[in-house]
Write a structure and sequence with these properties.
The chain is of the alpha/beta class. It folds into two domains: 165 residues, Rossmann fold, CATH 3.40.50.720; 183 residues, Dihydrodipicolinate Reductase, domain 2 (2-Layer Sandwich), CATH 3.30.360. It is built from 13 helices and 18 strands. β5, α5 and β6 form a beta-alpha-beta unit. The protein is globular and about 50 Å long.
Length: 373
């Protein structure tokens, strides 16, 4: 039994704390007493802490066997650095914008295993492509992912399963992909295509910047990632973006300096907040194509998961959180314990790790089907 600290008690952070507490001693830290209260009522140790202060984090995490990072993306890099400086192993879902490999030397010097980007996506697709990269010559890799409410409500037909300001990054950050072996950058929300996804129906897919570490860790000539929304949502986001509502540069409004993206995030939150016990789902499709044993093959992985009323756990918390807690158990068990920064594709290439994660998810009702052609 290990001693684990979860930094962040949001929807996903809370689900991870409860999952890990089945086998380990878990403490959850957050600045919000309101967020911590439901966890405390279920027997989780809680600490009120300002996770925006790296020096506080470095002191806070000492003495733990492993830390789970579940803070908003804009806090993620500083949080990860603080944990690594304290010499504590880390598994992270913060999806920060900075290059995680900048922390590789520090992690190696401190003897820390740090797994980053370890959620449903990025995360699961990385594990899959890392596994296949060891066993075949991949020519094309692509994946499509989205978390959406069952009930479509005007005007946005969307609910944010995590921080709205992190969602807005998907609508503004340029999307990097690989075409012909070269990195190509396109605007977010570009190359919209309509696709059918049973049992939901037609959704729209747009370019987003989800490949991240894959741009440098695998040699594949064609790679892309797209985010899924209900048809019509993208056009609304384009209007807001082009009008300047997502800008990060402060503007003066009647003598008050404010960043438009902060105001937009504040205004959108009531519209995008999932209601208690609201049904939502997660869709993921991963396609891996190439040569295996001198034959052209195509692997198609599909995941469809829904809110679990029995545990009152959202699908996004299940799919993101349980992928992360599976990786945490890989580290704690010693099955993967190499010092340094490791994105999931490097974990998937390690013998037995992908099977462990998929079995862990299966035991929690998160099922990934595969079809080989």
């Amino acid at each position: 039994m290990a001693n684990i600290l979860v930094l962040g008690a949001g929807m996903v952070g809370g689900a991870m704390a409860l999952d890990l507490a089945k086998q380990h001693t878990v403490t959850s830290a957050d600045i919000s007493a309101t967020a911590l209260l439901p966890l405390a009522e279920q027997g989780i140790n809680t600490i009120i802490a300002d996770l925006s202060q790296p020096s506080h984090i470095t002191k806070l995490v000492k003495g733990y066997d492993l830390v789970i990072g579940a803070v908003p993306g804009f806090l993620g890099f500083a949080m990860a650095k603080a944990v690594i400086e304290a010499g504590v192993n880390l598994v992270d879902i913060s999806f920060f914008e900075e290059d995680p490999f900048e922390l590789n030397k520090l992690a190696q010097e401190r003897g820390v295993t740090a797994i980053v980007d370890c959620g449903v996506a990025p995360g699961l697709p990385n594990l899959l492509v890392g596994h296949h990269h060891q066993n075949m010559r991949i020519a094309n890799f692509e994946y499509y992912v989205g978390g959406l409410p069952h009930k479509r409500q005007w005007p946005y037909e969307y609910k944010a399963p995590f921080s709205p300001i992190d969602v807005l990054e998907e609508y503004t950050r340029p999307a990097r992909m690989i075409a012909g072996g070269k990195v190509v950058t396109k605007p977010a929300l570009s190359d919209v295509e309509l696709m059918d996804f049973p049992p939901i129906g037609r959704l729209e897919a747009f370019n987003s910047d989800g490949l991240r570490t894959l741009l440098r860790t695998v040699d594949i000539k064609h790679m892309k990632e797209k985010t899924l929304r209900y048809p019509g949502h993208i056009r609304l986001m384009e209007v807001l973006r082009e009008t300047g509502f997502f800008n990060k540069e402060a503007i003066d409004v009647k003598g008050v300096s404010i960043r438009p993206i902060d105001l937009t995030s504040k205004l959108l939150f009531p519209f995008w907040k999932l209601e208690p016990q609201e049904r939502e789902f997660t869709l993921l499709k991963v396609i891996v194509e190439g040569e295996e044993e001198k034959k052209q093959v195509r692997y198609t992985y599909d995941l469809y998961d829904e809110y679990d009323p029995a545990t009152n756990t959202s699908s996004m918390a299940r799919t993101t959180g349980y992928t992360c807690t599976a990786a945490a158990n890989l580290v704690l068990s010693g099955q993967f314990n190499r010092p340094g920064i490791y994105p999931p594709e490097l974990i998937g290439a390690w013998p037995g790790c992908l099977d462990f994660v998929l079995q862990y998810l299966e035991e929690r009702g998160v099922r990934l089907s595969v079809r080989k052609e």
